[in-house]
Write a structure and sequence with these properties.
single chain, alpha+beta, 3-stranded antiparallel sheet, two-stranded parallel ribbon, 7 helices
Length: about 150
């Protein structure tokens, strides 16, 4: 993976059109928002070399029209000079409900419970020591909104 990552990172064939996400010419909008992909992305994002390799690629998505980016370190690491930063916080249950709605499952049952437990665990454990760059924008540099 070490040898392939820099080349892959520079040539990632991703593009966005409205709410659709394309890899090459394939619409992967549904798959990319699935719980399995989300969990996989969270695991891979904890690898410092992956984060470093993708940092410029993330910045390259910024256009003259701006960008709405979501993630814990978007306003602190990826786009520290953004003109507007909004940091939304919520308890584990609200975050799990939002995720369930996003992937189209009911907010009850075994699958929802798994998501809820995962969100409860991430809030408690936080990022691993080698990835402390995962941090919210400072309170001075962002609007903070608490949901629920």
């Amino acid at each position: 993976m070490k040898r392939r990552l820099p080349r892959w990172q520079k040539n990632l064939p991703a593009r966005f059109e409205g709410t659709q996400v394309f890899l090459d010419d394939e619409d992967v909008s549904g798959q990319i928002r699935s719980e399995a992909i989300g969990m996989g992305a969270s695991a891979v994002a904890q690898l410092p070399k992956v984060r470093a390799a993708l940092l410029q690629r993330q910045r390259d998505f910024l256009t003259g029209k701006g960008l709405v980016a979501d993630g814990r370190d978007m306003g602190s690491v990826v786009f520290p000079d953004a003109a507007l930063k909004v940091f939304l916080t919520a308890g584990a249950k609200i975050r799990a409900e939002r995720r369930a709605k996003q992937i189209g499952i009911p907010c009850e049952g075994l699958e929802f419970e798994r998501i809820f437990i995962g969100h409860r665990g991430t809030r408690r454990s936080g990022p691993p020591p080698q990835c402390r760059a995962l941090k919210a924008a400072s309170r001075r540099g962002a609007f903070w909104i608490r949901a629920g």
